[in-house]
């Protein structure tokens, strides 16, 4: 076993373990006090909002888990609906409702559902930006006192229930943003970047919290968000984490303070930064991924349907709708349908990625039907077709193709080869460069009529396949 030193050169030699690359599907759980009001503006996804309204995007964020920050803008939609529903009650008042709901909550039904849709790992939020911890931390919150945490160890309960279903377990933790350390409202990314926690208090909070979580749950994944306040503490933490068990991994959101962060104290620098991010998002086709940190095992593009990441391990993270936290005001049009979710998943897997799909439970911990429906459809698809998904890698011998808007993506699982078809196909299909293929058949179904024409393979598509929202073909070669 490799021994890692507490320095970035040594730690960067670690890579994502094969179990994670094989898993393909994980579930994030975003659940906390913000799940009680369950509101954010609707109608636009966050990446387009950042591109189109860079100066006040966070004021209007569709993410319901940002409720406390959004509430600070008196002229914003969150404050208006809050006044109408809750009057002058502070954000902290949602704690009473959330904790009362725990009396009837158990982790087992949630993990039963997640395992049932075919997920191989689960990553619940343990502390979001509001600093409310879902475990009884021994550390007092600097603004809200010694008991700013759940009355039970919900994190350990979820870990035990997940592992009872043979799923790997990770922890989401927001170290780069904490509204009890920096309570000023944040309207844009520049202001958020300026709010990266710093100083001895922040260092102690983040390091102690991570060590508590690691000791209590032995997590397979550290899924950090936004950044981390101190390099020396981080290198020590990661060396301990990797040396204790090498088949663990961390994501790409442990960004450290840089001169760019310090420059964000200048309003003009913040404006320039916001506009630069907006331009980059428009140029990339609205694909968002965090800045690359010194040490990471996998990249985490957000709300990206596919990503050309090369050989680096990566996962798309997103909700079924436009929010991670439960948002009661979303309508059917805001959610992926089951067919859309399956097709998106195939595009991600066909490009070598994983999908970390989010569940945002209600305040009482139950899963809304509008999320459960599409996720169940994905689970049904995996139950039938999982042999072509789990453990797969892109097949670089055959070309990836897009035919009438549908991606056809070749993959390998050991010696078996498959084509992931992410949408309906026309009646006749020319697979360019696939002339070396002996034949195609529907997975566990009949062979398709094929003929070679030069270097290409021409396929007659039966009506059952032509009308399918997604399909798996087995490749004979």
Question: With helices defined by DSSP (H or I, 4 residues minimum), what is the helix count?
Answer: 16
CATH superfamily of the largest domain: Glycosidases
Backbone structural class:
alpha/beta
CATH topology of the largest domain: TIM Barrel
**Overall morphology:** globular
Q: Can you tell me the CATH architecture of the largest domain?
A: Alpha-Beta Barrel
Share of helix among residues? 25-40%
Largest sheet: 7 strands, parallel
User: Strands across the major sheet, in which order?
Assistant: 5-4-3-2-1-7-6
CATH class of the largest domain: Alpha Beta
Low-confidence stretches are: none
Beta-strand content: 15-25%
- Average the pLDDT over all residues and give the rounded result: 95
Number of strands: 16
- First-last Cα distance: 39 Å
Whole-angstrom Rg: 23 Å
Number of domains: 2
Organism: Alterisphingorhabdus coralli
Protein name: alpha-L-fucosidase
Domain Glycoside hydrolase family 29 N-terminal: 2-387
Keywords: Glycosidase, Hydrolase, Signal
Jot down its keywords.
single chain; 477 residues; alpha/beta; TIM Barrel; Immunoglobulin-like; seven-stranded parallel β-sheet; GH
């Amino acid at each position: 076993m490799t021994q890692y030193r507490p320095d970035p050169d040594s730690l960067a030699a670690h890579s994502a373990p094969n179990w994670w690359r094989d898993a393909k599907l994980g579930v994030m759980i975003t659940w906390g006090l913000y799940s009680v009001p369950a509101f954010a503006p609707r109608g636009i996804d966050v990446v387009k909002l950042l591109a189109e309204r860079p100066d006040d995007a966070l004021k209007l964020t569709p993410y319901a888990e940002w409720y406390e920050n959004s509430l600070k803008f008196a002229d914003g939609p969150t404050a208006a609906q809050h006044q109408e529903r809750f009057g002058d009650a502070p954000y902290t008042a949602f704690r009473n409702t959330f904790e009362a709901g725990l009396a009837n909550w158990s982790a087992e039904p949630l993990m039963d559902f997640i395992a049932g849709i075919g997920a191989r790992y689960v990553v619940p939020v343990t502390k979001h930006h509001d600093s409310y911890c879902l475990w009884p931390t021994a550390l007092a919150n600097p603004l809200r006192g010694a008991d700013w945490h759940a009355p039970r160890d919900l994190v350990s309960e979820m870990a035990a229930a997940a592992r009872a279903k043979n799923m790997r377990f990770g922890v989401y933790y927001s170290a780069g943003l904490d509204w009890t350390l920096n309570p000023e409202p944040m309207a844009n990314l520049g202001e958020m970047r300026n709010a990266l926690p710093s100083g001895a208090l922040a260092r102690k909070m983040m390091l102690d919290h991570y060590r508590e979580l690691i000791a209590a749950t032995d997590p397979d994944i550290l899924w950090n968000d936004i950044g981390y306040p101190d390099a020396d503490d981080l290198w020590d933490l990661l060396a301990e984490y990797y040396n204790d068990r090498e088949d663990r991994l961390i994501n790409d959101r442990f960004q450290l303070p840089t001169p760019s962060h310090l420059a964000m104290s200048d309003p003009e620098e913040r404006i320039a930064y916001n506009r630069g991010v907006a331009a980059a998002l428009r140029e990339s086709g609205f694909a968002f991924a965090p800045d690359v940190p010194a040490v990471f095992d996998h990249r985490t593009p957000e709300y990206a349907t596919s990503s050309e990441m090369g050989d680096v391990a990566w996962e798309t993270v997103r909700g079924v709708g436009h929010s991670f936290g439960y948002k009661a005001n979303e309508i059917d049009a805001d959610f992926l349908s089951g067919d859309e979710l399956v097709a998106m998943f195939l595009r991600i897997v066909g490009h070598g990625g994983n999908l970390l799909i989010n569940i945002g439970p209600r305040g009482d911990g139950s899963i809304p039907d509008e999320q459960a429906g599409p996720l169940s459809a994905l689970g049904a698809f995996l139950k039938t077709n999982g042999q072509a998904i789990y453990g797969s890698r892109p097949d670089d011998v055959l070309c990836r193709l897009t035919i009438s808007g549908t991606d056809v993506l070749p993959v390998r699982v050991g010696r078996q080869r498959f084509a992931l078809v992410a949408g309906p196909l026309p009646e006749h299909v020319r697979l360019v460069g696939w002339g070396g293929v002996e034949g195609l058949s529907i997975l566990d179904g009949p062979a398709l009529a094929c003929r070679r024409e030069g270097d290409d393979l021409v396929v007659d598509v039966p009506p059952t396949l032509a009308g399918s929202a997604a399909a798996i073909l087995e490749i004979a070669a």
